[in-house]
């Protein structure tokens, strides 16, 4: 029996049991079966969750791009690796074959080398969803540089803090990006960010042709450099645990966490889960609509698919341009077989006229996926009926930037699905639900905090530059467990349903937003004394942001509409437009405990319009404020 491709439920259980009984043996077999190693490992796994330290395939040598590109050249050289669908439907799609992608990566890698980039150096990438983004990632990986992709919707401040945190000397960006009808000037955001950074080189990709300023001695157009670069670039031989990339994710406090992923384990796990979760077969056309700026794009647009020699669609645009049928138009046009998106996109499209969907032939689809947040029942049914025509199973996949790859998901055509349930752990994933006494809750029909009790190959190894924070955040809440920050329930048959974050992270349209940095941004407004952000249910975004704000000058009549705009502008410039507040309530005070902690539980209840269920408020130092909050008015 091959471990690598599960085809029915009985086989899932056999593989799962084996993976739990003998994890090292299991992951050794997977690694042997499918990959190209320059040197075999000495030891499959070494770990200790207290330090914490985790090493997979220690002693092995490899290069992930050899697995994603070189080894396909003889068998799949003319097969499309990246199928690029531009923002403008009238611009032709590009079919980039494995041979062409290999050549572009080699040239790009040689350009990076010629700019002095060496193994271990960090390179920040701020690019829209264009082929150069995939090429840039792989070029870094080919020469052993550590890529750190910054989502091309983040503000100058967010770019600067990431560049400084990972101490990167070279930035790759583009002149601009196309999103629907808009052209966004990305280069000027980078320029603004770099006023506060120590970066030597900026390589600029030409996409939109908008006017940009090129700083003498620092900025260079990449096209002429690529033209003269050699297409021969031998891979840098990497150790299994050498860093592959850093990707930032929001924390509940303070600055974003640079999750560091390493080479061998990440490769094995993303390739393995891609194959199984999407039931990928050789001639499929696979499309994940995520942005490569998030972990889903890293693992399931670039590394997982390319490691399997798949055709991976990259879409530059947005689901609403030129109209709300764009996704389905692309599915029809390219005969997409696997379609992977976020619940927020499904909800947005489900709100529009059904003709946008029904006019397209979606019969090529075999597997649907969702990721990023819990999918509500209504959206699940809409997806199942209108897109999958009740024939394509929906893989509700749960994972995190920290986990690197999908952890809980049905195996399509094997695991019977139930709306809103991510169902069962993938092979090698050992889950635990914990109670408030830090004990594991055994048995079924239970609910608790979701933990993972055994290492898996693609887990992040540290927070870049702050191992202590890594331990504190993930390994201190429960003994010998990785704590996910999510709550979950396990139903009567053992299926998991993720109930949402149990910390101060709010997921808006599938984006993880920490409350602290948003509050910090708001508090910078001169009129603001204090603020607290909570999430509340929103029919498209899943959650939207509700801000409670106290102003410095109480009593004075300020124009609250102006303030609303100014505060949101502040957030846009510090974090990005995704963190804007949908509702603001100006208040004279925030409910606080005696130790001065804002009682968010109460604010959440009010935002959820459940002020009849506030629970015990006797520990508040200012209970009178609660009444005024309930009565208070909102600005939309
Ligand atoms: C992949 C990704 C991680 C957080 C995670 C959880 C939420 C992701 C989910 C889901 C319910 C799913 N989440 N997938 N919740 N069902 N299928 O989104 O990574 O951006 O790090 O977010 O997203 O709360 O803890 P990331």
Number of strands: 30
CATH superfamily of the largest domain: ANL, N-terminal domain
Major sheet attributes:
8 strands, mixed
Helical region count?
20
Q: Report the portion of residues in β strands.
A: 15-25%
CATH class of the largest domain: Alpha Beta
| CATH topology label of the largest domain | Rossmann fold
Calculate the terminal CA-CA distance, rounded to whole Å: 59 Å
Rg from Cα: 24 Å
Question: Which small compounds were modeled alongside the protein?
Answer: ligand 6R9
Kindly name the structural category. Answer: alpha/beta
Percent helix, as a range, is 25-40%
Mean pLDDT: 93
Shape: globular
Oligomer: single chain
CATH architecture field of the largest domain: 3-Layer(aba) Sandwich
Low-confidence runs (pLDDT<50, min 5 residues)? none
Number of folding domains?
Answer: 2
Q: How are the strands of the biggest sheet laid out side by side?
A: 12-11-8-6-7-14-15-23
Family: Belongs to the ATP-dependent AMP-binding enzyme family.
GO molecular function: acetate-CoA ligase activity; AMP binding; ATP binding
EC number: 6.2.1.1
Domain AMP-binding enzyme C-terminal: 518-597
Architecture overview:
With 636 residues, the protein is an alpha/beta fold. It has 2 domains: 9-488, Rossmann fold (3-Layer(aba) Sandwich), CATH 3.40.50; 509-632, ANL, C-terminal domain (GMP Synthetase, Chain A, domain 3, 2-Layer Sandwich), CATH 3.30.300.30. Helix content is 31%, strand content 24%. It has an 8-stranded mixed sheet with strand order 12-11-8-6-7-14-15-23, with helices on both faces. The chain has a 7-stranded mixed sheet with strand order 5-4-17-16-18-19-20, with helices on both faces. Strand 28 and strand 29 (542-551) form a beta hairpin. Helix 5 (98-114) crosses helix 6 and helix 7 (156-166) packs across helix 8. The longest helix has 17 residues, at 98-114. The protein is globular. It starts with 8 loop residues before the first helix and ends in a 5-residue tail after the last helix. The model has no long low-confidence stretch (mean pLDDT 93). The site of ligand 6R9 has 22 residues, from helix 11, strand 20, strand 24 and strand 25. It is an enzyme of class 6 (ligase). One of its GO terms (molecular function) is acetate-CoA ligase activity. InterPro entries: Ac_CoA_lig, ACAS_N, AMP-bd_C, AMP-bd_C_sf, AMP-binding_CS, AMP-dep_synth/lig_dom, ANL_N_sf. This is Acetate--CoA ligase. Residues 518-597 form the AMP-binding enzyme C-terminal domain.
């Amino acid at each position: 029996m091959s471990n690598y491709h599960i085809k029915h439920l009985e086989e899932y259980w056999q593989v799962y049991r084996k993976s739990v009984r003998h994890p090292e043996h299991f992951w050794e077999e997977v690694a042997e079966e499918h990959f190209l190693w320059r040197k075999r490992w000495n030891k499959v796994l070494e770990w200790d969750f207290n330090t914490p330290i985790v090493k997979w395939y220690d002693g092995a040598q490899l290069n992930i791009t050899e697995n994603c590109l070189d080894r396909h050249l003889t068998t799949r050289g003319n097969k499309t690796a990246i199928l690029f669908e531009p923002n403008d439907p009238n611009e032709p799609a590009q079919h980039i074959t494995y041979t062409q992608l290999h050549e572009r990566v080699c040239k790009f890698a040689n350009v990076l080398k010629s700019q002095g980039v060496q193994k271990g150096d960090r390179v920040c990438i701020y690019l829209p969803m264009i082929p150069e983004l995939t090429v840039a990632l792989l070029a870094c990986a080919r020469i052993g540089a550590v890529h750190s992709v910054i989502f091309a919707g983040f503000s100058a401040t967010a770019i600067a803090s990431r560049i400084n945190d990972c101490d990167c000397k070279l930035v790759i960006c583009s002149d601009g990006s196309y999103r629907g009808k808009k052209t966004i000037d990305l280069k000027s955001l980078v320029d603004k960010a770099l006023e506060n950074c120590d970066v030597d080189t900026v390589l600029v990709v030409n996409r939109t042709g908008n006017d940009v300023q090129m700083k003498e001695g620092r900025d260079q157009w990449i096209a002429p450099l690529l033209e003269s670069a050699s297409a021969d670039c031998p891979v840098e031989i990497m150790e299994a645990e050498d860093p592959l990339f850093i990707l930032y994710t929001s924390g509940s406090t303070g600055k974003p966490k640079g999750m560091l992923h390493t080479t061998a384990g990440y490769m094995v796990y993303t390739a393995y889960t891609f194959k199984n979760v999407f039931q990928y077969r050789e001639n499929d056309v696979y499309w994940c609509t995520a942005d490569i700026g998030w972990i889903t794009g890293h693992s399931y647009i670039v590394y997982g698919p390319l490691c399997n020699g798949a055709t991976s669609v990259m879409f530059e645009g947005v689901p609403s341009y030129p109209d709300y049928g764009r996704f389905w138009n692309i599915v029809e046009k390219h005969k997409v077989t696997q379609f992977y998106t976020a619940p927020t996109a499904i909800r947005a499209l489900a709100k529009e006229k059904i003709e946008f969907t029904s006019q397209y032939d979606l019969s090529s689809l075999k597997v649907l996926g969702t990721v990023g947040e819990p999918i509500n029942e209504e959206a699940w049914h809409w997806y199942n009926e209108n897109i999958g025509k009740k024939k394509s199973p929906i893989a509700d996949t749960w994972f995190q930037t920290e986990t690197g790859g999908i952890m809980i998901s049905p195996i399509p055509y094997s695991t019977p699905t139930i709306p809103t349930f991510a169902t069962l752990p993938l092979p090698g994933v050992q889950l635990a639900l914990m109670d408030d006494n830090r004990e594991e809750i055994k048995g079924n029909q239970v609910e608790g905090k979701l933990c993972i009790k055994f290492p898996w190959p693609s887990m992040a190894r540290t927070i870049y530059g702050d191992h202590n924070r890594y331990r504190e955040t993930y390994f201190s809440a429960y003994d010998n467990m990785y704590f996910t920050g999510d709550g979950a329930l396990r139903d009567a048959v053992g299926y998991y349903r993720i109930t949402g974050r149990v910390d101060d992270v709010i997921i808006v349209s599938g984006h993880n937003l920490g409350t602290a940095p948003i509050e910090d941004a708001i508090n910078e407004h001169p009129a603001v004394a204090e603020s607290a952000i909570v999430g509340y249910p929103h029919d498209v975004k899943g959650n939207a942001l509700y801000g409670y704000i106290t102003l410095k000058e109480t009593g004075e009549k300020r124009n609250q509409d102006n303030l609303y705009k100014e505060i949101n502008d502040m957030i846009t410039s510090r974090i990005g437009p995704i963190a804007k507040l949908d509702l603001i309530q100006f208040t004279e005070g925030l409910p606080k405990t005696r130790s001065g902690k804002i009682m968010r539980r109460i604010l959440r209840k009010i935002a959820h319009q459940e002020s009849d269920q506030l629970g015990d408020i006797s520990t508040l130092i200012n209970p009178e404020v609660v009444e005024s909050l309930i009565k208070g008015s909102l600005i939309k």
